[in-house]
Design goal:
The complex is a heterodimer. By secondary structure, chain A is of the alpha+beta class. Chain A is built from 21 helices and 24 strands. The longest helix of chain A is centred in the middle third of the chain and has 25 residues. The chains are: A alpha+beta, B alpha/beta.
Amino acid sequence: MTLDYQKLGLIAGIEIHQQLNTKEKLFCRCPTTIREAEESNGEFFRYLRATKSEMGELDRAAEEEMMQVRQFRYLTYDTTCLVENDEEPPAPLNEEALDIVLTIAKVCGMTPVPEIHTMRKLVIDGSNTSGFQRTALVAMNGTLPGGAGIETVCLEEEAAQRIEDTFFSLDRLGIPLIEITTSPCMHTPEAVQETAAQIGMILRSTGKVKRGLGTIRQDINISIREGARVEIKGVQELDLIAEVVRREVCRQVSLLDIRDELKKRGASVEKNPVDVTSLFTGSKSRVLKSAPKILAIRLNKFAGLVGREIQPGRRLGSEMSDYAKKCGVGGLFHTDELPAYGVTEDEVTNLKKALDATPDDCVIIVADKPQRCQCAMQQIIRRAEMAFEGVPKETRKMLEGGSTAYMRPLPGAARMYPETDVFQVRVTPERFASLEIPEMIDDTIARYMQEFGLAREVARQMAYSERRNAFEEAINSGIKPALAERAFNSTLRELSREGTSVHRIDDEDIKQVLMLINTGEVAKEALSPILTALAEGKTPTEACECAAPKVSEEELASIINRIVAERADFIKERGNAATGPIMGVVMKEVRGSVDGKIVNQILREAISHVLKNT
Amino acid sequence: MSTTFETGDLVRCTLQGCSCEGTYITTRDGMATVKLTSGYNIGVPEESLSKTGSSEMAEPQEVEIAQDTTLPKISIVSTGGTIASKIDYRTGAVTSQFRATDILNAIPGLASLAEFSAVQLCNILSENMTPAIWQQLARAIYDEIRSGAQGILVTHGTDTMAYSAAAMSFMIKTPVPVVFVGSQRSADRPSSDNVMNGMCAAKTALSDLGEVVVVMHGTTSDDFCAIHRGTRVRKMHTSRRDAFQTIGDGIIGSVTYPSLDVSLSSHAVKRGNCEPRLKDKLEEKCAIIWYYPGMDPALLSAWNGYKGIVLAGTGLGHCGTDMIARIREMAAAGTIFVMTSQCLHGRVCDRVYDTGRDLLGAGVIEGEDMLPEVALVKLMWVLGNTSSLAEARLMMAQNLAGEITRRSSV
């Protein structure tokens, strides 16, 4: 579908969540280390339930999570404590994390909140043991260099990592997270992606954020004219953002078309589900045959619309199914897609007959325990009725490829109440003023190109590298930029491609090797084997010795003399032009242990000696 | 609080570089708390606010929970605590709620177990509990038993719950369960332990038990609640759900969750074992002294005129030899001394070392395996109920309410 976004009135904003690389978690003194589930040292389980806000309201999103009583299991580690277990009150807000967030706020020209209040945001999907996420508004009203408005930055605690369904790992819970919310100021899918990239660049510029998949997540808020605000959670890949926006616009446009079509047809939704369990007792569909209860509902004049694709891989039926799943059912069947899945044509005919359905109607069935079926049917009816409104306000989650599925209603302000166990933190003007603004990576790239003569791509790689500081320190201690770049970036990339575990190499060790090269003790040609030896766990001295054993001048002379003698005919034939090829042979033999200049000098002498003697 | 603004006023907040709108909540130390439309609270100087209107901050709606009068009757006697606490949006503080409706609202499942009536005895944080309130509590519980309750639930803050449970154990003879319950996580959070503790306690109150118990989480998981004897239970952790532990004995039962199956051990006292009886006199001139190396014996003079003193001694039940002369003097003047151990686990034995033998010689009574706090409460009760020193000494060495076990089982 080609879409004119301006005409459609696309409005989008993003929320970026980025883990901060602090020493300790936000509200306890545990390290911010991610663990493997196998390293767990115990587990426990809990139930959560929705509580009313201080105003006596029950949050709609929380209420929907409560439709099923679920038991949540949690894995603990020797790096988690009673705070993650919700067994101890929180420690004071982590000041290191707050400084990072304030620094980012300063970069964006924001106004810090004079006194920061930590809030509890109700989250009862199990990802927080307490049933809420602690979050604090830190600064407001800023602008990105590109012009996009930043409404707020918040400091939040990361949720527990979901292992599966209702099973969580506590290592991630409580890692500090910055949440940056832009204003709804973007009007094309590309603009959204560019803004996300720019915020990502600013975050990385601090050098104090976590790296790697899952450490940054984007939520996208999208609406079109006549559509509704939809929040898409957890987009991890930057490159997918534009596609997610395109697909959401497509979904909203399709839902609006369906709305118009329903109105035109004079469609309606029946209120009372019909028990059709007996129709499927002999069914070939295993789900239906074994179901304790099967309920059906007739959607008048919905035929063809429930099965209509609204974005790649998604139909109106998928939306209804998502709503039904909140009751614990596995999904639903609708007549737009039947006969299929073991349901025969005869069964469909009988089903339609039992519900007095005409060919213009669509019938939906769910099969499960009676109570779940009842709950699911109410959800399906609710979602079918929403189709007349067009696009419901929702929180959605991203599926692979960029389409989305319904998660829960958009939460309201009712889900926030004060975290009474954490003292407020005053941000004095002096504190804010004293924060140093880091160099933006875009500026670093330009500087590397200009000062160090690096090519743009190499400069970019170096600027984003974790080894950036070590690289600059090496240059400051007299290493040539080109050599430092090769040591800290290009050579490591080559080795990494070949399967060497370069992450094991310590920056300090690389620096030591560079100093040895600088003083002429080791030849720069040996860099690659030395780095390989470092990756194998050798010390810089060991690595230099085994990768580039010392060759004395006498040894070198004898090697050269031998090689030259073996190739005397070649030399006589080519004259001085033989130097190049023979140089290669010698360097290979000494494995880069000797500076090429010295080899070259001795070799020339030896060759001219041979030539003189002919 | 502010003189300019009232809670609920709509305000505009102007800070350098931005302005925002919200609802005024309160002012503390010159900083006004404003709830923004996003739900976030922020603190700003009150001078930065200007009133733009006022909102109707409706009082939270209370829903009356319908009670089933065919169900057995449980009386709730409330003293306070976080089990039905609510958050006050004005101050942000957690406050306790005490009406039966509040508790039924906080734990909706209760209404399906029993018909509840409630007595609101007091509204205190449990650190503010006093022996005088124990007496009121004992009378209130006794009245409820007499008026036919199948069981009594006492909601109580957890800090001093074990003291109160011990006090009730001595003051009341009960044919029905008297169940103390509280919560370690406030009721306003989705993970609160109040629902599970409350449900398990209610089931215990309906069970075949006839004594004073504490019912709280058995583990950190929501799997079962342990039923602890009121005279053997102690809060052993500042914050964990399973802070309450039975010391020096087995728990007397458990209640599974969410299935709510009660099982009682063989040493549990059964329902109907006695007629209700109230003995509510207490001697408040009693104290507990925690001995430490180098303690100045002169400190003991601060308790001159006290009728009874529980010593929490070291190891088998000792305090430094320097203390003994002063103890002897006070004992001779009529103060009863009971020795317990800081070890909490194990039995006092002052017959092994010279110091112990000297303490016995000075008149100190071995407190057997009584918990120090339980010994204190017992001493208050014993001295309140007998004027004979000899009888009091005898009673202190005897098991009256499960506070002393005959054998130290392995």
